[in-house]
Every structure is written in structure tokens, then in C-alpha cells.
Write a structure and sequence with these properties.
By secondary structure, the chain is of the alpha+beta class. Helices cover about 30% and strands about 25% of the residues. The protein is built from ten helices and 13 strands. Helix 2 runs parallel beside helix 10, helix 5 runs antiparallel to helix 10 and helix 7 crosses helix 10.
């Protein structure tokens, strides 16, 4: 095994200018991540300088067998924490050979919204709190839980410390450092209320980069759990009963909200979000009705309400924002399996472009 480790850790820059680029894209479910690697003649820093590539869309549920070619367009580059050196991870979106975005390509429409002059002028910032659950490989039961049984009730696990409270910290810390190495704007991690559940935060990120960074952070976490022999779940309610679900709370502000008088802008934005509550819920992740029950720090899925420091609301405004009269708010409705391209662009579209 030591020889295998030595080979995996080979520093290619000692002997060649060539690099490895791992192209990443979103598969047919809209949640599964796929990737494959290619050799490039030298380092590349600009995604527009990278070659387009293709893959078999019939094997990912994204194209028929008789016309299976799907084209990858490189969109964002990150350092590769697995191969290191000058090797890179490349976030891509997917198109038909004719140049049309395929149905699961949500990035293309998001980029159009973020490039709208009115949206660009507001410089929308996002901070996304990605919750997830680590499961035992063969039984799909949270790590640290007794097989077929349950740990003690919730209470000691949130930000907990100790072998009987924090399960999987080695994976979590590995992911944290790997994201920092990659150049992802990861801003923190913490243990969650349900044991075996954790959270990382990405942001503040501007516009389309929030979606790129969260998807690549998810990819890195998938790769690390693959190495660890643990299953990664983004199910919004992985365990039935009196256990917290998993969300992707999305913190948001615009330039107008961050400036003096911004609190009034925030309140108007929240009013608009309330008017489009059903549309947002429909786009905020699969299975969210199992999570948004009005219990476990959520508002009921059919109810829209907001409040200051209220974690049982659809939208939470922080005490600091209320006191300063400007700042940001948190949309607590998105599920852990949401598409960040959809959620971030929809919030911008509703609060900036949509006219009631």
C-alpha cells in the first residue's frame, strides 16, 4: 500500500509541464456529480482557454442512445486538493452539440439572470449553509449510531465535542482544508443538531460564483467520503421522527441592503419573496415537505412568515441587521439537496427583477 500511496502522491511538476484537469458536471438526477480527467500540455488559469469536451449522456440519463453526445463547457477552475501541484478541478455545464443547454443545465439560466444589468449593479452576495449527513456504507444508517438503534436524544450533539457526540470530524476537517486549498470561499464548519450530521458554509460569494463554489465543495466532499468508505447524504430528512432535517439556508444581500437605509429594502424584498412562496418552494429541493413541518427549527411548508432572530420562520433577519438598519437576511426554506444555481438566481430574480 505504501507504493500505491507514493504513486498517488507523485509530484508531476518534477518531470513534466503537463497537468491533469478533472472536468466536473452535474448528472441526470440534477444532484449526482460526475467527473473525468484529461491531460493538458501545461497550466491553465482561465476557463475560456480550456478545451470543451464531451461525454456519453445516455449513461447519465441526459441523452438518448442514438444521439448521446453531450458537450462540456468549462466555467470555473479550482486547485485540485487530491492531485495537488498544478493540477486543477474544472466546473462545467452541459450543452447539446448544437449549443443548447440540456434540461439539467441550470447554470446557463442563472448566468443570464446574474448578468442582467439591474442584478449586476446590486452585486448580490450569498452565504450558503450546506447541511449533510454521513451514513455507514452497507446499512445507510448515520455513522456513530448503533445498528438498528438510536443514540440519545438531540441536545448534546450541536457543535459537540467528544467521541460520544461528534461522529466523522476527520472527514469534516479534511473537507474544510481541501476546500481552502482548492480556492473555494469556505467560511466555516460545525456539527449539527442530529448526530452524524454536519454543516459547512460557502461565502460570501458574488452571483454565479456561489453556485460554482458550492457544487465543487460538494464534489470534494463526495471524493473524501469515497476515500473514507462513508456514504454522503443530502436527503432533507434522512431519519424519520424527532430528528432535525438537513437544509441549505441561503443568506443574501444586495448593495442596496448593505447601504444605509437597507433595512427597508430588505423588508420589501421579503414581501416579494412571500408573494412567490409557492414558486420558490417548488424549486427549493426534492422531499422538502418532509423537512418543513413547523418543527425542528422550520416553518411549515405552506406558511410564509419572517421574523428577527426567529429560527422557526421562513426568512430570518439577524439582530445585528435590525440594529444597524442594514445588512442581510437568511432564507431558511431551501433543502440540503437544492441546486444552488436555481436558488441563488431565483432569489435575485424575485427581489430585484420581479414586479408584483
Amino acid at each position: 500500500m505504501s507504493l500505491l500511496t507514493d504513486l498517488i502522491n507523485l509530484n508531476l511538476s518534477d518531470c513534466t509541464n503537463k497537468i491533469i484537469a478533472e472536468y466536473i458536471w452535474i448528472g441526470g438526477s440534477g444532484m449526482d456529480l460526475r467527473s473525468k480527467a484529461r491531460t493538458l500540455s501545461g497550466p491553465v488559469a482561465d476557463p475560456s482557454k480550456l478545451p470543451k469536451w464531451n461525454y456519453d449522456g445516455s449513461s447519465t440519463g441526459q441523452a438518448p442512445g442514438e444521439d448521446s453526445e453531450v458537450i462540456l463547457y468549462p466555467q470555473a477552475i479550482y486547485r485540485d486538493p487530491f492531485r495537488r501541484g498544478n493540477n486543477i478541478l474544472v466546473m462545467c455545464d452541459a450543452y447539446t452539440p448544437a449549443g443548447e443547454p440540456i434540461p439539467t443545465n441550470k447554470r446557463c439560466n442563472a448566468a443570464k439572470i446574474f448578468s442582467h444589468p439591474d442584478v449586476a449593479a446590486e452585486e448580490p452576495w450569498y452565504g450558503i449553509e450546506q447541511e449533510y449527513t454521513l451514513l455507514q456504507k452497507d446499512v445507510k444508517w448515520p455513522i456513530g449510531w448503533p445498528l438498528g438503534g438510536y443514540p440519545g436524544p438531540q441536545g448534546p450533539y450541536y457543535c459537540g465535542v467528544g467521541v460520544d457526540k461528534a461522529y466523522g470530524r476527520d472527514i469534516v476537517d479534511s473537507h474544510y482544508k481541501a476546500c481552502l486549498y482548492a480556492g473555494i470561499n469556505i467560511s466555516g464548519i460545525n456539527g449539527e443538531v442530529m448526530p452524524g450530521q454536519w454543516e459547512f458554509q460557502v461565502g460570501p460569494s458574488v452571483g454565479i460564483s456561489a453556485g460554482d463554489e458550492l457544487w465543487v465543495a460538494r464534489y470534494i466532499l463526495e471524493r473524501i467520503t469515497e476515500i473514507a468508505g462513508v456514504v454522503l447524504s443530502f436527503d432533507p430528512k434522512p431519519i424519520k421522527g424527532d430528528w432535525n432535517g438537513a437544509g441549505a439556508h441561503t443568506n443574501y444581500s444586495t448593495k442596496s441592503m448593505r447601504n444605509d437605509g437597507g433595512y427597508e429594502v430588505i423588508k420589501k424584498a421579503i414581501e416579494k419573496l412571500g408573494l412567490r412562496h409557492k414558486e420558490h418552494i417548488a424549486a427549493y429541493g426534492e422531499g422538502n415537505e418532509r423537512r418543513l413541518t413547523g418543527r425542528h427549527e422550520t416553518a411549515d411548508i405552506n406558511t410564509f412568515l419572517w421574523g428577527v432572530a426567529n429560527r422557526g420562520a421562513s426568512i430570518r433577519v439577524g439582530r445585528d441587521t435590525e440594529k444597524a438598519g442594514k445588512g442581510y437576511f437568511e432564507d431558511r426554506r431551501p433543502a440540503s439537496n437544492m441546486d444552488p444555481y436555481v436558488v441563488t438566481s431565483m432569489i435575485a430574480e424575485t427581489t430585484i427583477l420581479w414586479k408584483p
